[in-house]
C-alpha cells in the first residue's frame, strides 16, 4: 500500500488524525523505552566484562588506559594550577565583594529625605529621587558588579590553566583531558557564580532573595554541589572514562552518578517542601503587586513538584544523550527563565499602567460625563485578556524550550498562522465593538445630559434611551455572530434558525408583539415621555420608566405599576404644552355675583404676588361667569392657564387665597338648605307663627340673625358680665343653640 500524501491526510477527519498521532506517539515512546532498556542491559554486560578483565589482569579490547597516561598527568597538573589560581583570585575578589557590600549598606542606612505624601514630594523639588528606587538601583548595580568580579576570577583562572596546558603539552603529552576540564570549569563555575550572586552567603546586602544567612548558605551549598557533581561528571568524568575504557562503561558510570544526584536532589526538595512553601506564602502576603502575590502563592504550592520534574528530565536527558545533556538543559533552563521573567515584567508593567485611573481632559469630561468611567470600566477586562495572552505565549515558549512543542514549526505552519490570525481578528472585532458602543453611548449621554436652551426634551430622552438599549442588543448580537464566523462556525443555519424561531415566537406571543408595536407608535406620536403626569389604564401618576413593551407609572400613594402597552387604549397626558386650573366655586344665593367675582380676581392678584407660583401662570384669570344654579347656591367657573404639570400647585395656592378673601368679605359658601312651608286652608290663609324667640334675640343682640344662621354670643368680658347681671331669666329668653330659627314662616333645617 502506498503511503498517504499530505493532501490525503488533510482530508481525513480531525478525530482520525488525532487518533493516528496519539498511536504514533505511543508507538514511538514504546520503541524508545525498549531501545533504552536494551542499551542499558548491554552496557551493564560490557561493564561487568571490563571489571572482570581488570580483576584477572587480562587486557580489555578497545581500552586505552596506557595511552591515556600522559593526558591524565596533564589533567592533574592543569587541575592543580587552576585550583591554585582560582583560590588566589577568589581571595582577591573577596575584597571587592566586601567593598560593594559596604557601599550598598551605606546607601541603605541613609535617612530618607523624600516625604511619602505627594504634596511633600512636590515641595522636595524635581531633583530629589525616591530612596526606594535609589536603593534598588544601587543594589542591582552592586550585585551585577559582584557577579562580574566572580566571573572574571573564573576566566582568569581558566586562562592560567589554558596557558599552562598549552605550554607544557609538548613536554608532558596530550592536553585533551586538560582542555576538556577547562571548558567544563568555565561553564560550571560561571553557573556557580550566578548561584553565589543570588544567595550571597557572606554578604547580606548583595543577596537578591529575602533569605536569612543560614537559609542562603544552605541552598547555595546544595545548588553548587549539585551543579559541580552533574557538570564535572558529564563533562569530565564520562568523556575520560569513555576514552580510557569503553563507551558502555562511561554510560554506566554516568547513569550511576546521575541516579545518585537524582536521589539526593529529590530527597532535599521533598524535605524542604513545607518550609519553602511557608516562606513563599509569607512573601506573597507582603507583596504590594496582586499579580506577583498570586503567582508566588501558586509557585509556593507547586515548587517541589516542578523541582522534581526538572531533575527527572535531567536524569532522562543525561541518559538519552550524555554528551549533549548539559547543553540542552542549559539552553532549556535559560530560555524558560528568560520567558518567565520577561512575561512577569510585561504583566507587571501592564498592571501598573492599566491599573492607574485614566483621566480625560476637562472639556471631554464636560461634554461626555460617562466617557471616563466607561473607558476605565474596560481596564479589568483588557488587563485580564493581555495577561492571558502573555501566559499563553510564555507557556508555549517554555514548552518549546523543553522540546515538548515546536513553536517555530507551528508558527511557520498553516495551522499556526491561522491560529495567530484568528486571535488578532477576534481582538480587532472586540476592540471595534467596544469602540462603537463607547462612541454611541457617549454621544447619547451627551445629548441626554445637555443643558440650556438646547437641552433634550422628554420625548428625545425617551427615544434616545430606547435607541441605546436597541443599539446595545444589536452590537452584542452582531459581535457574537462575527466571532462565531471567525472561529469557523457557519452562522447561516443560526441566522435561519433565528428567523424561524422569531416567526414562531411572533405567532405564539402575539401579546408581546402587540406590546412592542403599540409602544413604538405611542413613542413616535409623542404620547408620553418619562416624568410626564398621565392617566393610563385607569391609573393616574408619573411616568417613571418606558421600555420597548411597557410603561411604569408611579401613583400618588407610591404604588409602582407596570403597564403593558397592549392594555392601553387611551393616554391622558397632563403635561403637554400647558395646563389649566379648572375651578368651580359654589356661593350662597344671598351673595352678590359681582362681589364674588371681584373677590376671585383679587385672590388671583394675590397669587401673582407669590414669587414661587407667579412664574407658573401663563395668562390672566378667565372667569366665564355663573355656570350653574342649584338648591345650594350658584356656581362661578374659574380658568387659570399654567405651565405644564403645575396646575395642581396653582390650584392649591389659589384656593387658599380665595378662602382668605371670601372670609374677609363675609361671602358665605353654601351648605344644604331646606324650605319648609306650613299648611294653608282653601282660602290660602296660613296660621301666624310665634316669633317671640326672634324678638328676644333682637333684644339681646340688637339685630335678628339672618336666615340659616344662629347668632351666638362671643366670649368677651362684656357679654359674660351682661349675662351674669341679667340672671337666669335673661339667659332663658335666648333661643336654643340647636341651629333652628324662624323667618317669615320658613324654618331652615
TrEMBL record:
Region (Disordered): 701-749
Signal peptide stretch: none
GO CC list: plasma membrane
Sample GO molecular function, one term: mechanosensitive monoatomic ion channel activity
Chain segments annotated as transmembrane: 71-89, 140-166, 172-191, 226-246, 252-270, 291-317, 337-360, 381-402, 422-444, 465-485, 491-509
Chain segments annotated as coiled-coil in the UniProt record: none
Domain Mechanosensitive ion channel MscS positions: 512-576
Similarity comment: family membership: Belongs to the MscS (TC 1.A.23) family.
UniProt-recorded name of the protein: Mechanosensitive ion channel
Species of the source: Allopusillimonas soli
